Amino acid sequence: MPEDFGPPAPPLRKIVHVDMDAFYASVEQRDDPSLRGRPVVVAWKGLRSVVCAASYEARRFGIRSAMPAVRAERLCPEAMFVPPDFVRYKAVSQAVREIFQRHTDAIEPLSLDEAYLDVTENKTGLPTATRVASTIRQQIRDELKLTASAGVAPNKFLAKVASDWRKPNGLFVIQPHEVLEFLRDLPVGRIPGVGKVSEQHLAARGVKTVGDVQRMDRVELEARFGRWSARLHALAHGIDDSPVVANRVRKQVSAEDTFAADVPLYETEPAIRRLAEKVWKASHGNARAARTVVLKLKTKEFTSLTRSLTPVEMPRSAEELGDVAVGMLDRVALPPGQMFRLAGVGLSNFQSDVETPLFAEPGDGVAEI
What is the DSSP letter of 186? Predict the structure, then answer.
């Protein structure tokens, strides 16, 4: 009687994570030769503005995304401040996505400038994921005059870590037989879900590297970390079965704006109408695919409040969307003297899938990706 070896092992997955380098700033430098080689900060100047992106020249001064623009200006007084142009960035992102689609339809966008690709089977017949990633980067460079970094690995977790390994304009591959050794010396904070607080919590228990987690047995892990232990153990050993999910359902389209100075409630209307226009354009005029309109406000004391409405019939124009959002101001029950620092408008509860625009040598006898 033949021996039963059980079901065959699942095929090795080949995942690529592509991350555009300093995307917004790089688009600005590409389109304006006078900005090339100079520290570029994509942000509106102002006391309340924050940095959307910084070129690598600006990052050398310590400037980072989400930093207050005034601090960026102090760090690098000679920086060139450029207001963001999201319409242009989305167009470039779509061009990047079209390059991806030459190779696979299994594309999971994370933002305008990064995405996962499952190239276990690819359209172009290239023998390895490494060749696919290299070809994609070359096509982006040749056709769009931009650079991208890529990570290649057997799963999404590892591919994302790898794409950051040789930034900017780099390619890094983690072969299946290299996974445990690659992870061993990484700070435990590189594991998704381990933030600064969790990292300190782990360090206090002597767990500072991914290798420290690898050396702990499952019983000890569960005793220390409870339900989180299974996920922590799996990622520390390079195990991540999460699939690349193409064409995710868009959960919300929104825009918000921080005012130059605090304003009373009735003075928020012009900003709300401008934001409604932005949201309408961002949804490609397809607001009727959503079911809910959302209004967001933030008081000068940084208290956030939201109001939402699911109308019988969704707005048919940006003006109607603005009317619905402004109408929800009547539901803000705060004293007349209350001042506000921010307003936002959003569409949520979409009924259908809406695509998000986007933004290495083999070893002998070893499976390669």
Answer: S
Q: Is 4 helix (H, G, I), strand (E, B) or coil?
A: coil
Q: Is residue 295 within 8 Å of residue 308, measured between CB atoms?
A: yes
Claim to verify: residue 93 and residue 78 sit in the same structural domain: no
| 362 belongs to a structural domain | no
Distance, in Å, from the CA atom of 49 to the CA atom of 68, rounded to the nearest integer, reads: 6
> 162 is in which domain, residue-wise?
15-21+87-177
Q: What is the reported pLDDT for 108?
A: 94
C-alpha to C-alpha distance for 188 and 255, rounded to whole angstroms: 35
Interatomic CA distance for residues 184 and 199, integer angstroms:
16
Check residue 5 and give its pLDDT: 52
pTM: 0.71
Q: How far apart are CA 5 and CA 23, in angstroms?
A: 49
With cut-offs at 50, 70 and 90, classify the pLDDT of residue 363: very low
Known binding-site residues for Mg(2+) equal: 19, 113
Looking at residue 101, which CATH number applies to its domain? 3.30.70.270
Does residue 361 lie within any of the structural domains? no
- pLDDT tens, position by position, 158-175: 999 999 999 999 999 999
Is the CB of residue 92 less than 8 Å from the CB of residue 144?
yes
- The answer to whether 293 and 315 have CB atoms below 8 angstroms apart is yes
Give the residue, 76 or 195, on which the prediction is more confident.
76
Helix axes 129-144, 86-101, angle to 10 degrees: 140
Query: Interior CA angle at 246 toward 242 and 248, to 5°?
Result: 95
Check 114, 178, 277, 355 and give the catalytic one.
Answer: 114
At 46, which CATH number? 3.40.1170.60
Known catalytic membership, residue 114: yes
Task: Please state whether beta strands 80-82 and 252-264 pair in parallel, antiparallel, or not at all (unpaired).
Answer: unpaired
Cα 273 from Cα 327, distance rounded (Å) = 11
What number is the average pLDDT over the span 7-13? 66
pLDDT at 32 over 80: yes
Q: State the DSSP string of 269-297.
A: HHHHHHHHHHHHHHTTT-GGG--EEEEEE
The reported pLDDT for the residue numbered 3 is 53
Asked if residue 364 belongs to a domain, the reply is no
Binding residues: 19, 113
Residue whose token pair is 């050794």:
181
92 and 135 belong to one structural domain: yes
